[in-house]
């Protein structure tokens, strides 16, 4: 791994968190897969050798429980879902170089070898622990077979995670007041011998790893608190039949915990890709093993694209396993926010979702959804989907900006000229603007921002619309045909650049555009350098790339959704439930998670008067300085310019924001908040933020420090 700007000389591997083979995909699940596909395509546009891999997560207790309820074997149950996912992803132009699963021969062998290496290196030990046991049904209860109370926050907890409270990973024996999820019987704890990975030995390494880690700031900041609190060693075996057997002597017939073999599938899937295409095309060992290649002694560039609910697994457990076995540590972790639906969480039990197949069955093309998911907010922020918002983004940006420029330019060129090149060369102004767009794409890749990739293209299209509008080639055709040809040549050059640079987000539409431009080969095979090349092909008669969504169509879709939800609730399917165990496993995948937990809090019935609101002195501020407070894990000391004065404000942003990025940020401040002393620092005001991720409130335009909010 180089940490140089992309593209580098080392092979890159982009992975997506494994979908848990336990239920249908909805569009919320697609966010990280689309994000990973966009990012891997963008790397390839820069000329980076890249493998894009993932696979289905087949193991764990939810699969075993649901398979038993369905009257089939866990393997058969999981394989059915795996095959469905493998067929669904390409429908959304998510094209993995390899898509495997955790139960295949490759992952079984690679997992058992890696665990054997951990044990040989002295990082695995045995320990007697208390395991939940159902005395009536006479069976041990691993993970989701047991539920009870979280010992840390008192919330309801399922097996190995406090999914309704503090989100903490729970070891076997930690859940209080345990009950069997199979029978409902009270459970008891019995002593049992299990295998542990000594994660605590890697605390110093992991602190340094987080300092080096690239990607989204939440992936770097959240794990620091767990390290500071003291890492606990990790139980890596379970008492059940479904899973990969622990290697070597195994008298108790233990299987490996699902979170051991799940990330190892990243390696296994890359290995399968190499076996298919050959090491000359892509060498999996050069990417994953330090010292395996003389040309790549530090391994390759590993980028994980995940949901924020599995940051802990990818920044603590997984890199410790890799370090202990001389594998390449991740270069970057891109952790996405969740997707909500009209301000509320998806609920599979209430059928409150836009299902992946449903989206396609309604006749929508996959690329507009890819654009919406990739560019609607920063990657680590939550994205809210509604048919109204989707319509507005499609109609305004894809149809009104990108599509409008391409269609009007290419139609005019086709009707007035036989072929490109229309003029001798692109003008300096337009060539420089294309170079700027390419630079924006390169910066977006190195900033791990899929949103900025889309912005680079829409901004170029806006320039194209402005350029053709002020140049008015339709008025030049008769009076100055040479100047008209020059203008249209410039517009076709911009269109070609859009085809190249927009391909990661809208691959199918850009291939169609490439063909309309009469270019040779496929747009999928070119690099950003092709955006600088003069247009060279015969122009075909263009068709509009993007289709407008009408208001009555949105009304129809909302009515369908409301009817489905009402029917599900009338049938009692979703009464009172807040989790979706029938389709999700919060411990096994970033996207196949319970989204009900993201429901928006109900609006308060307590009202305040206008006079009471007037008593609030809310001002625009600009953060001038930000630093941590000694002894406080979460708090930052901010110096905030409020126009009339600069104040010290203490804010709980340390784990949720990159401290170095905060200076210069405009924020909204409650200026007449009572003063308070926190860890010896007097706080004189309150910075306002939204949600658990502390999304800072800011301004849309240019209101300066001291401006009053009213």
TrEMBL record:
Residues annotated as signal peptide: none
Stretch list, region Disordered: 566-605
Renumbered ranges of motif 'HIGH' region: 19-29
Superkingdom, taxonomy of origin: Archaea
GO aspect biological process, one term: methionyl-tRNA aminoacylation
UniProt-listed SUPFAM superfamilies: Anticodon-binding domain of a subclass of class I aminoacyl-tRNA synthetases (SSF47323), Methionyl-tRNA synthetase (MetRS), Zn-domain (SSF57770), Nucleic acid-binding proteins (SSF50249), Nucleotidylyl transferase (SSF52374)
Top enzyme class: ligase
Keywords, comma-separated and alphabetical: Aminoacyl-tRNA synthetase, ATP-binding, Cytoplasm, Ligase, Metal-binding, Nucleotide-binding, Protein biosynthesis, RNA-binding, tRNA-binding, Zinc
EC number: 6.1.1.10
Keyword match Hydrolase: no
PROSITE patterns (UniProt xref): AA_TRNA_LIGASE_I (PS00178), TRBD (PS50886)
Localization annotation: Cytoplasm
Catalysed reactions, as listed in the record: tRNA(Met) + L-methionine + ATP = L-methionyl-tRNA(Met) + AMP + diphosphate
Entry GO CC: aminoacyl-tRNA synthetase multienzyme complex; cytosol
UniProt-annotated binding residues for Zn(2+): 150, 153, 162, 166
Needed cofactors: Zn(2+)
GO molecular function, one term: metal ion binding
Binding sites annotated in the UniProt record for ATP: 348
Record note on cofactor: Binds 1 zinc ion per subunit.
Pfam families per record: Anticodon_3, tRNA-synt_1g, tRNA_bind
Keyword check for Transmembrane helix: no
Family that this chain belongs to: Belongs to the class-I aminoacyl-tRNA synthetase family. MetG type 1 subfamily.
Protein's job: Is required not only for elongation of protein synthesis but also for the initiation of all mRNA translation through initiator tRNA(fMet) aminoacylation.
Subunit structure: Homodimer.
Name this protein carries in UniProt: Methionine--tRNA ligase
Organism, scientific name: Halorubrum aidingense JCM 13560
Gene name, Swiss-Prot/TrEMBL: metG
């Amino acid at each position: 791994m180089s940490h140089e700007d992309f593209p580098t000389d080392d092979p890159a591997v982009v992975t997506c968190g494994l979908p848990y083979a336990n239920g249908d995909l909805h569009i919320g699940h697609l966010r990280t897969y689309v994000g990973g596909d966009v990012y891997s395509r963008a790397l390839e546009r820069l000329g980076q050798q890249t493998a894009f891999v993932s696979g289905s997560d087949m193991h764990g207790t939810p699969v075993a429980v649901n398979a038993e309820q369905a009257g089939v074997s866990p393997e058969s149950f999981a394989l059915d879902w795996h095959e469905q996912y493998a067929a669904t992803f390409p429908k959304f132009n998510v094209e993995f170089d390899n898509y495997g699963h955790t139960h295949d021969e490759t992952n079984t062998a690679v997992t058992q070898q890696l665990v054997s290496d951990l044990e040989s290196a002295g990082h695995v030990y045995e320990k007697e622990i208390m395991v939940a046991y159902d005395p009536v049904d006479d069976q041990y209860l691993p993970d989701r077979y047991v539920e009870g109370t979280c010992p840390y926050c008192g919330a309801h907890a399922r097996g190995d995670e406090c999914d309704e409270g503090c989100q903490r990973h729970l070891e076997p024996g930690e859940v209080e007041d345990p009950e069997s999820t199979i029978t409902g019987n009270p459970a008891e704890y019995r002593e049992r011998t299990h295998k542990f990975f000594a994660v605590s030995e890697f605390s110093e390494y992991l602190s340094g790893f987080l300092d080096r880690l690239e990607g989204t700031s939440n992936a770097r900041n959240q794990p620091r608190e767990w390290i500071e609190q003291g890492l606990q060693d990790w139980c890596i075996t379970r008492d059940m039949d479904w899973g990969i057997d622990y290697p070597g002597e195994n008298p108790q017939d233990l299987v490996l915990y699902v979170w051991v073999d799940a990330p190892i599938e990243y390696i296994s899937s890359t290995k399968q890709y190499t076996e298919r295409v050959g090491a000359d095309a892509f060498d999996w060992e050069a990417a994953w093993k330090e010292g395996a290649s003389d040309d790549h002694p530090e391994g390759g560039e590993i980028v994980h694209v995940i949901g924020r609910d599995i940051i802990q697994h990818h920044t603590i457990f997984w890199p410790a396993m890799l370090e202990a076995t001389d594998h390449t540590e991740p270069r970057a972790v891109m952790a996405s926010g969740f997707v909500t639906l009209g301000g509320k969480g998806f609920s599979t039990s209430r059928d409150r979702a836009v299902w992946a197949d449903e989206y396609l069955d309604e006749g929508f093309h996959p690329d507009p959804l890819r654009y919406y998911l990739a560019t609607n907010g920063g990657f680590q922020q939550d994205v809210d989907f509604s048919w109204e918002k989707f319509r507005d983004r499609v109609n305004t940006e894809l149809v009104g900006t990108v599509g409008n420029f391409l269609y009007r330019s290419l139609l005019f060129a086709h009707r007035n000229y036989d072929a490109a090149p229309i003029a001798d060369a692109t003008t300096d102004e337009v060539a420089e603007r294309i170079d700027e767009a390419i630079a924006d794409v390169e910066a977006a890749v190195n900033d791990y921002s899929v949103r900025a990739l889309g912005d680079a293209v829409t901004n170029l299209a806006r320039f194209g619309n402005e350029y053709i509008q002020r140049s008015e080639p339709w008025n030049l055709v008769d009076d100055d045909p040479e100047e008209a040809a020059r203008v249209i040549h410039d517009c076709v050059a911009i269109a070609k650049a859009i085809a190249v640079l927009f391909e990661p987000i809208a691959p199918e539409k850009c291939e169609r555009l490439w063909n309309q431009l009469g270019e040779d080969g496929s747009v999928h095979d070119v690099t950003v350098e092709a955006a600088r090349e003069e247009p060279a092909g015969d122009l075909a008669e263009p068709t509009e790339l993007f289709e407008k969504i009408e208001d009555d169509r949105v009304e129809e879709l909302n009515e369908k959704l409301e009817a489905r939800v009402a029917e599900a609730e009338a049938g009692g399917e979703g009464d009172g439930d807040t989790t979706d165990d029938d389709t999700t496993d919060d411990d096994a995948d970033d996207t196949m998670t319970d989204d009900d937990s993201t429901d928006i809090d109900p609006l308060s019935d307590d009202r305040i008067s206008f006079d009471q609101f007037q008593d609030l002195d809310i001002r625009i501020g600009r953060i001038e300085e930000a630093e941590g407070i000694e002894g406080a894990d979460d708090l930052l000391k901010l110096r905030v310019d409020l126009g009339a004065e600069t104040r010290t404000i203490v804010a709980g942003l340390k784990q949720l924001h990159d401290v170095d990025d905060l200076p210069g940020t405009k924020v909204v401040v409650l200026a007449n908040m009572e003063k308070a002393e926190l860890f010896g620092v007097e706080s004189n005001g309150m910075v306002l933020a939204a949600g658990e991720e502390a999304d800072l409130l800011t301004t849309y335009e240019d209101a300066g420090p001291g401006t009053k909010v009213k």
